């Protein structure tokens, strides 16, 4: 989605020489590449809708469920992976996670059964769970605290770059076929990332951590106590639900249903439609650091979150429902929608400021779980709405949905954004805490 701030490192101060910082960026880059890679895998069904529906003989709701199986494991495993990162460190989990994505990709590519394809997507989601959390956990272990915000920004940018590969992926699918693209392009890329992680990524720099005033408490009893405190905090739930509702335009429109909608709306091929939705990711990539700077400048989290929800609702209503928008203007609107979406990641900064440093990793994973769980409902729900209003027309062996069908089904997107705006009174202002929190 698919991202935040893990607690500041407790490793003490290290040398600030250029060599050590360059090595830190090099180590982080493999986790960042993994985050970009899993984003491309997550979004891939959006550019192969017709092929998947034809090969598996399914309609829109089942197609939405196939895509959402990624989100099932991704959401369920957020908390276990967050605890595992704190307990065992990121390297061991990352070494296992990328091969799991590769196995899932191969199963998905060779499957003749719809249910086996769903299992492949489930494995891809399970492996992908480690990408975001692993990137940020490595950042806390390799970078000085003052660099963490910058690393978080580059992590989000890496994800958006991976997500923006829809157009080239569509071209590959047109040239090779979707199965061949998964087998001979995406799986080998994952193998290269796996080798890089095994060879170059370590939990700590070669010089090792210096002595600290207090060693991190990673006992399971302590970790579960922290988790309990997070689960019973209504503010975390509220921020999570706000983030989930704000995430709907990406998870439902840009990741899955936007490309077929734009193909029908403008009568263009999937590569062109993919280039339009890609503008959302460019906007989000640029907007993430800009909105964060605005939030810091005004010393407020809640204000940009409120403005973001209001503008996102307006922008998505225009994109979906205003008729006769020129294609060139649609590129600009998707870029603007992505830029506005950048208010959503502020929830993670708020969550970190509501919890002690020792609980930040678990708090982020719990919040991310809430965010991604909504995708489990929204992606197949839009497909179910499409099937509900479908007139029964078939085209090239697959159901044909009109622009009116899509507009009815996509109504859930602006409604979600309006609900996000209504949640704002329940969200506290968290920037910045004057009173230093105690370690958990």
Fill in the keyword field for this structure.
single chain; 440 residues; mainly alpha; two-stranded antiparallel sheet; 18 helices; 1% strand; globular; disordered N terminus
Topology readout:
Elements: H1 18-43, H2 49-56, H3 60-76, H4 78-88, H5 90-110, H6 114-142, H7 148-163, H8 166-176, H9 178-200, H10 220-231, H11 234-266, H12 270-297, H13 302-321, H14 327-341, H15 346-354, H16 360-389, E1 394-395, E2 398-399, H17 403-409, H18 412-422
Antiparallel strand pairs: 1-2
Helix pairs in contact: 1-5, 1-6, 1-7, 1-9, 3-6, 3-16, 4-5, 4-6, 4-16, 5-6, 5-9, 6-7, 7-12, 8-9, 8-12, 11-12, 11-15, 11-16, 11-18, 12-14, 13-14, 13-18, 15-16, 16-17
Write structural notes for this entry.
The protein is mainly alpha-helical. The protein contains 18 helices and two strands. It has helices at residues 18-43, 49-56, 60-76, 78-88, 90-110, 114-142, 148-163, 166-176, 178-200, 220-231, 234-266, 270-297, 302-321, 327-341, 346-354, 360-389, 403-409, 412-422; strands at 394-395, 398-399. The protein has a two-stranded antiparallel ribbon. A hairpin with a 2-residue loop joins strand 1 and strand 2. It starts with 17 loop residues before the first helix and ends in an 18-residue tail after the last helix. Residues 1-18, 209-214 and 433-440 have low confidence and may be disordered.
């Amino acid at each position: 989605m698919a991202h935040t701030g893990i607690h500041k490192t407790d490793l003490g101060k290290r040398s600030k020489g250029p060599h050590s910082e360059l090595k830190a960026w090099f180590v982080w880059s493999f986790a960042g590449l993994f985050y970009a890679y899993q984003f491309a895998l997550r979004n891939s069904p959006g550019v192969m809708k017709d092929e998947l529906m034809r090969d598996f003989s399914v309609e829109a709701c089942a197609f939405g469920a196939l895509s959402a199986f990624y989100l099932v494991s991704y959401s369920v495993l957020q908390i276990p992976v967050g605890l595992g990162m704190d307990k065992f460190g990121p390297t061991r989990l990352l070494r296992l996670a990328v091969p799991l994505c590769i196995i899932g990709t191969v199963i998905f590519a060779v499957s003749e059964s719809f249910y086996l394809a769903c299992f492949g997507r489930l494995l891809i989601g399970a492996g992908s769970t480690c990408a975001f959390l692993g990137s940020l956990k490595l950042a806390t272990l390799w970078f000085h605290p003052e660099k963490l915000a910058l690393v978080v920004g580059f992590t989000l940018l890496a994800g958006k770059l991976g997500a923006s590969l829809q157009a080239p992926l569509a071209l590959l699918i047109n040239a090779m076929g979707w199965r061949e693209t998964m087998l001979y392009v995406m799986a080998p890329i994952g193998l290269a990332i796996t080798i890089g992680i095994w060879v170059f990524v370590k939990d700590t720099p070669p010089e090792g951590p210096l002595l600290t005033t207090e060693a991190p408490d990673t006992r399971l009893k302590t970790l579960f106590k922290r988790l309990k405190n997070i689960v019973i905090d209504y503010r975390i739930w509220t921020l999570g639900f706000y983030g989930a509702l704000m995430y709907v335009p990406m998870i439902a429109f840009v990741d899955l249903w936007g490309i077929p909608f734009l193909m029908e709306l403008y009568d263009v091929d999937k590569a062109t439609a993919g280039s339009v939705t890609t503008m959302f990711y460019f906007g989000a990539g640029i907007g993430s650091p800009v909105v964060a700077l605005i939030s810091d400048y005004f010393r407020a989290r809640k204000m940009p979150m409120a403005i973001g929800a209001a503008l996102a609702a307006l922008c998505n209503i225009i994109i979906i429902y205003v008729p006769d928008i020129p294609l060139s203007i649609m590129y600009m609107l998707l870029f603007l929608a992505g830029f506005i979406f950048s208010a959503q990641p502020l929830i993670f900064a708020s969550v970190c400021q509501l919890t002690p440093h020792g609980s930040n990793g678990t708090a982020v994973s719990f919040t991310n779980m809430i965010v991604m769980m909504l995708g489990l409902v929204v992606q197949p729900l839009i497909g179910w709405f499409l099937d509900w209003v479908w007139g029964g027309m078939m085209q090239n062996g697959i159901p044909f949905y009109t622009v009116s069908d899509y507009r009815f089904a996509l109504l859930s997107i602006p409604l979600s954004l309006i609900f996000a705006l209504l949640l704002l009174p329940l969200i506290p202002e968290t920037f910045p805490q004057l009173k230093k929190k105690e370690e958990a």
